[in-house]
């Protein structure tokens, strides 16, 4: 996938980039957004590791082309100015290109790489990860590709992708799914739906309910059975209404398991509510993240009411992009 959108400014004609992810939507959003905000033009790739290397931690994997299923996915004829990676398996692509090209390439990893940050030129990760070091840029929330300009464009196109079913102002409900920290039990589903019923009754609003790839099928079935007639429940088929729903919703309600979705929701400047689930194992990093967003006035716990408030949206992507641009400008003549 070639990325040429440089968001709100013109891309520097000499900045060539390549980005690698493990393929997750949140990872793609991070590298895509950072590449565009940095003013670079390049492509997104996946470079999966073959067995047994894909099962090992990066610190245990040789920095060699033969650890990849297809070494050609990492190959670059000329050194790119910028290499952006996100995800555990993508780390090896960054390390290999750094080994090949040295200081001619600027390597940036997003999220905590769980290896020494010194192996990259820059590491951008949320403050709640607790990672420190001279290469580390701590951000409030996750990086992503959403911008006010993109949301404004989406809003100008009106309701579509199923949202035209809704005839009143609507709140957007974003559903994550089970992780090692959260189970998404049937009991939690029942309590969540009771709070949503209260919000509908009190606010005279409708709901646009969007599951993610991780949302259990039993949750989707229950949402369709309960809300399918009067509200909109995306069945995960057809056009994804995620962007127009974000752009048009009056409020956003997000399950607590997704830092990416909550960070993207904060771009809207609309009230963002978090549906907190029971931890099945201690989730210190998530607790720290939620506390930081609440203290910044961005989110509030969802208790069945829909209130209005304002806040300054995080500028995590632009914060990191500015540092990247400064580094690149010092590496080549203007």
Would you kindly provide a written description of the structure presented here, covering whatever features stand out?
- The protein has 334 residues and is of the alpha/beta class.
- The protein has 2 domains: 2-140 and 316-331, Rossmann fold (3-Layer(aba) Sandwich), CATH 3.40.50.2000; 148-301, Glycogen Phosphorylase B (Rossmann fold, 3-Layer(aba) Sandwich).
- The chain has helices at residues 25-38, 91-101, 148-156, 186-203, 217-227, 242-248, 259-265, 284-295, 316-331, and strands spanning 2-3, 16-21, 41-46, 82-86, 106-110, 122-126, 136-139, 170-175, 206-211, 232-233, 251-255, 272-275, 299-301.
- The protein has a 7-stranded mixed β-sheet, sandwiched between helices. A 6-stranded parallel β-sheet has the order 10-9-8-11-12-13, with helices on both faces.
- Helix 1 (25-38) crosses helix 9 (316-331) and helix 3 (148-156) packs across helix 6 (242-248).
- Mean pLDDT is 92; it is low at 1-11.
